[in-house]
Amino acid sequence: MEAGNISVLSEFILTGLTNDPQLQPILFVLFLFIYAVTVMGNLGLLTLIVVSPRLHTPMYFFLSNLSFLDFCYSSVTVPKMLMGFFSDYQTISFFGCMAQTSFFVIFAVTEFFLLASMAYDRYVAVCNPLLYHIIMSPTLFLQLVIASYAVGLINVMLLTSTTFRLNFCHSHVITHYFCDIPPLLKLSCSDTHVLQLLLFACGGFNVSVSLAIVLVSYICVFFAIIRMPSAQGKHKTFSTCASHLTAVSLYYGTTVFIYLRPSSEYLLGSGRLVSVFYTVVIPMLNPMIYSLRNKDVKETFWNSLEKSSRFFSFLMPRIPRCSKQ
After folding, report:
1. How many CB atoms lie within 10 A of CB 179?
2. C-alpha closest to that of 166 among 139, 136, 140, 187
3. Each residue of 97-142: pLDDT tens digit?
């Protein structure tokens, strides 16, 4: 964007989710509760994995990074949305909008490839259990995580730099609760064909490559489960993979709906509702999905809770009982 445009357009206005004064306090309490659960759930799971040697395995290393990503990209959007419930509209500076878009893109794209890495980890664990610790070496799973963040960073450099070079002269009102690329396209009076093509190409690459890894991995896992002689082994393996498949289905379904379609078909109302699901609801659900069905996480949590209660009971001074006269 040219310097002259930056001086003219120094800020955007976010309309938020609703302007209904009766709904705003209800939605504020609801989303504040969801965000609090999201923060406690993801940071709690991350802390549990870090402090528990039992959970120092590749699968939980990926899961700790997923919790970090869910906490981050939820925190990029939700606090600003909560502040918007106290006013009819909320301003965000041009560079603040650029920063919010950049952080959101890198965290959201990284999650695609982290979910794919987790699927590959499950494939190795189920199909090559004897070679699991050799194949999934610390070097490999660290490289997979770094590569996931690298793809997110490349997407940021391509998409954000192209988006904020546009001229925004139609309006500076973003009909959304955060700065996202599709609603920003609606405000531009520049030729957006290059950006639309780039958005579709990046989105197509992110989804097709990561989803191909997920599908191939789980097709192999499915056939491996069928060949298992033990019903108990089948149930245990399927239960382990089911939580990941649930998270993948929710995340891919909502993000594909938003980003892999022409901007002319982008409906602001439905776009905001679907965005709420993957920026607010999914980050809250992921810790529950991966914890409630996971025996190791539950046992580690209760053991840590028991140790903590013993520690605090030891620190508390004992109150002597009064003897009866």
Report:
1. 26
2. 187
3. 999 999 999 999 999 999 999 999 999 998 998 899 899 999 999 9
Both tokens of 113, joined, read: 């490839």
Extract long-range pairs of 185-194: CB within 8 Å, 24+ residues apart. Answer: 185/263, 185/266, 186/263, 186/266, 186/268, 190/166, 192/166, 192/263, 194/162
Segment 195-246, tens digit of pLDDT: 888 988 998 899 999 999 999 999 999 888 888 877 777 777 777 778 788 8
Burial profile 36-46: b = 16 or more Cβ within 10 angstroms, e = fewer: eebbebbeebb
Torsion of CA 75, 160, 253, 147, to 10 degrees: -80
Block residue for tokens 């560079």: 95
Please count the other Cβ atoms lying within 10 Å of the Cβ belonging to residue 314.
7
pLDDT score recorded for residue 5: 42
Q: What is the pLDDT of residue 270?
A: 62
123 and 237 Cβ atoms separated by less than 8 Å: no
Total count of residues recorded for the chain: 325
